Amino acid sequence: MRKLGRPFALASALKLTSAHAYVEPGVDAGTLALVLGVLGAIVVAFAVILWHPIKRLFQRRKAGRRPGPGKKH
Prior knowledge:
73 residues
């Protein structure tokens, strides 16, 4: 009897029903702000991660062009 009851309990727990609730218009704006905020955070994180190596590359390139002490162009 126990083995037979588990599939029925699982099926009844997973049964999808329609929700009878009111979703106000402000939820759309909040959801949009959340999605844009997360995407913006991901873009900024990648930019910060990539900025340091690019900055170091430009510093090395700039340091290679400087004349040493006592040298003129």
